[in-house]
Amino acid sequence: xxxxxxxxxxxxxxxxxxxxxxxxxxxxxxxxxxxxxxxxxxxxxxxxxxxxxxxxxxxxxxxxxxxxxxxxxxxxxxxxxxxxxxxxxxxxxxxxxxxxxxxxxxxxxxxxxxxxxxxxxxxxxxxxxxxxxxxxxxxxxxxxxxxxxxxxxxxxxxxxxxxxxxxxxxxxxxxxxxxxxxxxxxxxxxxxxxxxxxxxxxxxxxxxxxxxxxxxxxxxxxxxxxxxxxxxxxxxxxxxxxxxxxxxxxxxxxxxxxxxxxxxxxxxxxxxxxxxxxxxxxxxxxxxxxxxxxxxxxxxxxxxxxxxxxxxxxxxxxxxxxxxxxxxxxxxxxxxxxxxxxxxxxxxxxxxxxxxxxxxxxxxxxxxxxxxxxxxxxxxxxxxxxxxxxxxxxxxxxxxxxxxxxxxxxxxxxxxxxxxxxxxxxxxxxxxxxxxxxxxxxxxxxxxxxxxxxxxxxx
Length: 459
Ligand code: ARG
What we know:
mainly alpha, Fumarase C, Chain B, domain 1, Fumarase C, Chain A, domain 2, Ribonucleotide Reductase Protein R1, domain 1, two-stranded antiparallel sheet, two-stranded parallel ribbon, 18 helices, 60% helix, binds arginine
């Protein structure tokens, strides 16, 4: 006779190959805490509506807590034959107390697994918010130690205009803050209880869904049983938010890789966060940053796998959905580990101020400032752009610095040029003139730093 929990109508158990192919316990066992919390809440509700006596509820609760501590301690025996985390725990419970046979009343693994995953997602998002705040703190700390360092800002990876290093790092603080708000937003839609939806069509038993939601800390209950057991949007959103975070981490990694090259030389990454070459004795490689850049491909892949998994499914639950867990787990694990190691690495980076100063001293970075100065004297911007462009061309031909082009040469381009517009070539003063909100002036950056420190102290 078939001994599975669903064996009633079967004459034999599954083929060994099928059992191996269909099981998920080897990866979904990590949901045990959520699964047990969900079962206790469900059993509690069943006792309130008279399906379980108080004694039966107590026995179930005790048995489940015992199972939980055995899993914590690593002594619980998982069985592949029991397919998944849900049936392993339920079967083990029933071995311990006959009341266990009543636990699955009005419940299906379909609403159960959706509940477990929503609980798990909510818990992990709390962890992520901490890790993202840690990353932001690391960036702020790095910026704070280098408030006087200027670097060229780049577009097209060509030197464009000078900025403070802190301004560049604060750009990442902004990105990681949007990542935080995406997660907070995704959590709102994860915060809905599917339990009570049954396999797909609810239950004839008058379950008190609101009570279960309250016990488990869900804000609401789902409104459509068909949607509730087949909806994976909350996972897609989470995986999408993770993919964006991974892309942000990858871009930061790319900046660090470029900056640590001999060609740039802006930073040195500490030995503890670099590795050597087995062949070239002189090498010190930014592997942590490179692996971070590489991992983003994997997190993007997890999102694509999940979207593809869901796209062709007819209503409602289909077993395909069992494949959702490993992809989401991978996405979450990868981003969490990367945030952790990258934040630690940022504390071990030294800035090479002399090289940065040298790079930013290129007067061409202030060409736009001369055009602006001409505009303030009444020259239309397009004419100003043309005048400075011609001056740059003269400098390129005669191999002189733009700041050293003689006044006579400027006058050849524009006879009426006012010599004091050429006073712009002081990079610190140039930055002090950038006064608007969002601009890289030192005053603005200091205000931004202060406001981030205050906001992050609360996180
Ligand atoms: N392990 C399954 C999953 O992860 C449980 C869901 C229900 N299974 C079923 N045959 N209806 O999706």
